[in-house]
Amino acid sequence: MTLKSEFLREAKARGFVHQITDEAALDARLAQGGPVPAYIGFDATADSLHAGSLVQIMILRLLQRTGHKPIVLMGGGTTKIGDPSGKDEARKLLTDADIAANIAGIRKVFDRFLTFGAGPGDAAMVDNADWLDKLLYIPLLREVGRHFSVNRMLTMDSVKLRLERDQPLSFLEFNYMVLQSYDFVELAKRHGCAMQMGGSDQWGNIVMGVELGRRLADKQLFGLTTPLLTTSSGAKMGKTAAGAVWLNADKLPVYDYWQYWRNTEDADVTRFLKLFTDLPLAEIGKLADLRGAEINEAKKILAFEATKLAHGEDAARQAAETARRTFEEGQSAEGLPTVEIPKAEFAAGIGVLDLFVRAGLAASKGEARRLVQGKGAKIDDAVVENDALVVKREDGAAKLTAGKKRHALVKAV
Known about the structure:
The chain is of the alpha/beta class and about 425 residues long. The protein has helices spanning about 5-15, 25-30, 55-65, 95-115, 130, 135-145, 150-155, 155-165, 170-175, 175-190, 205-215, 255-260, 270-275, 280-290, 295-310, 315-330, 345-350, 350-360, 365-375, and strands spanning about 20, 35-40, 70-75, 125, 195-200, 220-225, 240, 245, 340, 350, 375-380, 380-385, 390, 395-400, 405-410. The chain has a six-stranded mixed beta sheet with strand order 1-6-5-2-3-4, with helices on both faces. Helix 3 links the parallel strand 2 (about 35-40) and strand 3. The longest helix is centred in the N-terminal third of the chain and has 18 residues, at about 95-115.
């Protein structure tokens, strides 16, 4: 079908769309004129989001860029329960203070990607604790619970997979999809929200919310899911051997964030430029034609544009310059991820395997040993030949390198 709405045209062209509940009706609604509010929910399980959430963040950004209103729903209420989708065990229960601190940290992420305000197209951040914490149990069962079939709930992947693996699913978690559906209806009533978006693993929960809106409020609501994203080699987005790729600089240095995107696999560069930057599709098409060593230029553009969105243009330029000086001039540039080690400890000597682990360049001593054995470990640009090497520094710093692209400074202090 020929799409009328700019949002759906752009979202499809960039690879954001997996499923839509009623594409023709949603396209017509979006093309009517005036902002259409749509939301994505984020539970507050940590004080930052990581790169695995970027598809959802970027589709909200695209929604706003095409004239509509993004609603960021913080799960101050649902975080107390825990979404069983994709989980093998129940989440740790957090206190109200923990949840509030996490929401404050996550707000910092969204302030860089969205424009918040009181205008019709401005983004809004809403907390579902505002209504979920006030629900009475018996009225909820009578008014909402009667619209849910346990038979159908048991067929949902979030429930079925846990049961098939003989892993416990608490009654608390089993209620999650009921509350998520109720969130959609409340947002429709309070904010005129017409669409819920989320990853493809949320399809069942989203469809239930669409149906609940029709039954409880006689509203036509819509659902859109994005593909679950992995790299071409099958790795999960937002994770590295050193840990999560956090979006807040106090959780991950900006240089490390830039490097994460610079290290993108060749086969993923064009796809990631479409999803994780604002570059026009025509410009991305030209970059997609690059081959061989030239593709590294596209990777640098991806790293710069993605870092600019998350941390600002100045920070992105600084990270790019640090990389240029390190890679192209061989300098031990300031701005590299730095690990400080007490001077007395460094002077006494630290095993090279421990040093690479402490610098975050290896997840374990076993991984560091394999790095040395594969000639992929360097200290001050010299290949480490012996995994029993003891490294000593009275003062100053040593530049560590893992493979061709990952660097860190260890500094005696």
